[in-house]
Amino acid sequence: MNKLMGFYELRELSIPTIPWKEYFPGVELSDEFLWTIRSAVNHGDDLNLPRLVGKTAGEATTFADNLYKQLYKKGMVVYYPYFVAQKSGTLNIHLDKIIIEAVKDDLWNLVTDQKLDVSLIITKDNDITSSYGEKNFFNTDEISQLIQYAQKISRIYRDEIIDGNSILLEWSFALSCNKNKQPTGKPYLVFYEVRTIK
């Protein structure tokens, strides 16, 4: 499963996910929000694809229009309202364990800058067998939510996991925000990528 398939797959999983929509030239982005623009390709390498995060409607539209031209018939451009991430990470679901890696703030701190604040290995019985980093990074509710969705994903992708694959999800505990990047409301868990790792 590549990034493109993952975007569609997220919608079908009944887990909290980003409200993404496919971008086409002429789509009007509201000035009331900041926007995130991401891309996915039909074939080939789909890691480190162009993206724009937390920009005004005008900046996002210009970027998305250019990206659409580059990817025409080769992929897809998606957009969704920007959110402020408090904690982010990956959830890697194996047959016999769950691995959680996390950082403060944006996921890019982990996947692009190689920072890591905490790493946990959790058994199928929900026991933490290994931990690295900041002990109090997560509160009990956050760990419970991640484990709960890991178990759900494990059931959905049972056959792939039994075949020796793992399922990798990217997530954040996030806050909605206004166009000045001021957080609003309460934190919520959101998943924004799922893929099969062979």
Overview of this protein structure:
This protein is of the alpha+beta class and 198 residues long. A hairpin with a 3-residue loop joins strand 5 (83-93) and strand 6 (97-104). It folds into 2 domains: 19-81; 84-197, D-amino Acid Aminotransferase, Chain A, domain 1 (2-Layer Sandwich), CATH 3.30.470. It contains 5 helices and 10 strands, in the order H-E-E-E-H-E-E-E-H-E-E-H-H-E-E. Helices cover 26% and strands 39% of the residues. It has helices spanning 3-12, 57-71, 108-111, 140-156, 158-162, and strands at 21-22, 35-41, 52-55, 75-81, 83-93, 97-104, 118-123, 128-133, 166-177, 183-197. A 6-stranded antiparallel β-sheet has the order 8-7-6-5-9-10. 27% of the residues are buried. The mean pLDDT is 91.
Would you kindly provide a brief summary of this structure?
The chain contains 5 helices and 10 strands.
Q: Looking at the structure, what is the overall shape?
A: globular
Question: Would you tell me the overall average pLDDT?
Answer: 91
Beta strand %: 35-45%
Order of helices and strands: HEEEHEEEHEEHHEE
> Please, how many domains?
2
Helix content: 25-40%
Q: Largest sheet at a glance? A: 6 strands, antiparallel
Cα-based radius of gyration, to the nearest Å: 17 Å
Strand order of the largest sheet: 8-7-6-5-9-10
If helices are DSSP runs of H or I spanning 4 or more residues, what is the number of helices?
A: 5
| The top level CATH class name of the largest domain | Alpha Beta
Number of strands: 10
- Head-to-tail CA distance between termini: 10 Å
CATH T-level topology of the largest domain: D-amino Acid Aminotransferase, Chain A, domain 1
User: Per CATH, which architecture of the largest domain?
Assistant: 2-Layer Sandwich
> Structural class, from secondary structure content?
alpha+beta
Sequence stretches where pLDDT stays below 50 over 5 or more residues? none
